[in-house]
C-alpha cells in the first residue's frame, strides 16, 4: 500500500477505508507495506529487545543490527523506512530496571518518531543530533525549540547541524548532548546508531570521517552507562562497514565499562 493522502490530523476524522487508514498511519511514502513488512519490523524490534535484555542481565553494552530501522516511527505512524521504533522499544524495556533512561540519536536525520513517543514524558530523555530539518528530512520536526511538553518539558533536546558538518563541529554538538545526558543522570542509555553522517553517505547530510566515528563511539562510551546500540540509518557507500567497525571500536575502547 502506498497511500495517496497523508493528513496532518488537523480536524480530521479517522476513516473506515483501508487506503485512508494507511494514509493516517504513515507520515510519508517511504514506508510501503508488503506481505512480509510486519514480520521484518517485528523481528527488528525483537533484536532491540534482545540487546536490552542482554544489558539488563549485566553486559556493559550490546549492539542490535536492526533492519528495518525505527527512529522515524511514532507510536501510531510509520515513516522514513521505519515501522516499529526499535530504539523506543529498547528504552521502554530498560525502564523495567532503570528509573531514568536516555536515548541519544546520532543518525543524521532527526529521530522524530522517538521524540514523538516520549515527548510528554520525563522518565526517558530524548536527545538528537541531526542536520537542520529546515532543509533536510524529516523537515517538519527536529528544531531546537521542540523541548517536550507537560511533565516532559525540558526532556527533549534537539541539536540541529549546519550543512557539511565535519568531525570537530560534530564532536562539539556531541559534547553538548553528553553534557545534557550526564545532567539527567540516567542509569541506562540507548544510542540510535545512524551512520549516515558519513562524508561518503549519498544523502550528504554531514562530513564525518571514519576516524570521526571512532571518536563518537569513544565519547559516548566514556559516559560509562549500560548501553544498547540500535542500528538506524546509514546508506550504501564503500566505507559504510568500515564506519560501523570504527564506531563500535570506539565504543569498546573507552569508558568505565568497556
Ligand atoms: Zn538517517
Automatic annotation (TrEMBL):
The keyword Zinc applies. It holds the Pfam family Hist_deacetyl. One of its GO terms (molecular function) is metal ion binding. Keywords: Hydrolase, Metal-binding, Zinc. InterPro entries: HDACs, His_deacetylse_dom, His_deacetylse_dom_sf, Ureohydrolase_dom_sf. Signal peptide: none annotated. Its cofactor is Zn(2+). The keyword Membrane does not apply. Residues 26-248 form the Histone deacetylase domain. One of its GO terms (biological process) is epigenetic regulation of gene expression. PANTHER family: HISTONE DEACETYLASE 8, HISTONE DEACETYLASE HDAC1-RELATED. Belongs to the histone deacetylase family. This is Probable acetylpolyamine aminohydrolase.
